Amino acid sequence: SLTLGIVGLPNVGKSTLFNALTRNDVLAANYPFATIEPNVGVVELPDARLDRLAEIFGSERILPAVVSFVDIAGIVKGASVGEGMGNQFLANIREADAICQVVRVFADDDVVHVDGRVDPFADIEVIETELILADMQTLEKALPRLEKDARKNKDLSALLDAAKKAQEILDGGKTLFSAKDSFDLSSVRELHLLTAKPFLYVFNADEGVLTDDARKEELRKAVAPADAVFLDAKVESELLELDEEDAQELLDSIGQDEPGLRQLARAGFHTLGLQTYLTAGPKEARAWTIRQGDTAPKAAGVIHTDFEKGFIKAEIVSYDDLDAAGTMNDAKAAGKVRMEGKDYVMADGDVVEFRFNV
Ligand code: GDP
């Protein structure tokens, strides 16, 4: 499954957040036979639609989708030149599908900042500079070979042009992802550049920041087009120890409607370019994870490879239509249930039953 790699400067709250991610027991509860690596934290994607489906179909249990985060050892200045943990760090990031950067915006005199001050913009720059430098090195190595190969093989000239454009963006001190509206990230996919991965920013904040909409907007703008999540990592770990009522009280006290881990799950899912579709029956109401743009047979393959191979068609009703109709029969009577073929592109909230040959 796809993962977000957690990075950030020392002492910004990565471990605190990661512990909250690993202690929520999502996998243990829902997927007892899954093996989880010690450095992987999993969080449920909240989806109230599953509760309603379970009600409509009398499902025994609910299985939400999950998002996985990998803990990547702390970055240090100089990582790109292979100092200390540098090389291993970059190798670990390369394996992640997206980069989740934790940034400190909480004030606490008892927690030392590596550079002696809380400055989220400077911190972001430190991390991004290392990633940008690493990509520049990759391109410096790749370009001479690409130039040579492109002379013989015209098919490579598009990749060469894209690589040169990427170099320009990096030279300007920007990550490729931040330029995604003017630069086609998929054009350099085979070069495995770190800053071409999607970014997500987690601002580890205190109540002062969490309730300051102008400050949040400023930070959000600074990292756009990446998603931004604001949470208090310390509170998130405390929430897991509390019953629902006390948890809500604690959230209220810092001006939050819901746990930050929920927001993180949604943003992580979005950052990875994922989407869900839903199935429901007497046994379970379940969300299945697919990529945005996946077709019906591809979606069927997530349940079982035989479903993809033997795909005939998919019986689909949009969640909203089913919710309004109240039962599957009423949805059918209202003409809301469609048969879709192999070219159908799945939409968010599709409630599906696949027909297939075995
Ligand atoms: P890491 O080095 O990035 O993994 O940071 P840690 O998670 O170890 O956190 C460093 C210190 O900051 C620890 O003493 C944490 O208890 C504290 N800390 C983490 N998150 C918060 C937060 O949101 N607020 C405050 N006040 N302290 C925090």
Automatic annotation (TrEMBL):
Residues bound to ATP: 11-16
PANTHER family, sorted: OBG GTPASE FAMILY, OBG-TYPE G DOMAIN-CONTAINING PROTEIN
Listed name of the protein: Ribosome-binding ATPase YchF
Record keywords: ATP-binding, Coiled coil, Magnesium, Metal-binding, Nucleotide-binding
GO molecular function, one term: ribosomal large subunit binding
Domain spans labelled TGS: 273-356
Gene (UniProt): ychF
Family according to the record: Belongs to the TRAFAC class OBG-HflX-like GTPase superfamily. OBG GTPase family. YchF/OLA1 subfamily.
Cofactor: Mg(2+)
Chain segments annotated as coiled-coil in the UniProt record: 136-166
PROSITE patterns: G_OBG, TGS
Gene Ontology cellular-component terms listed: cytoplasm
Functional description taken from the UniProt entry: ATPase that binds to both the 70S ribosome and the 50S ribosomal subunit in a nucleotide-independent manner.
Pfam family, one: MMR_HSR1
Origin: domain of life: Bacteria
OBG-type G domain segment(s): 2-251
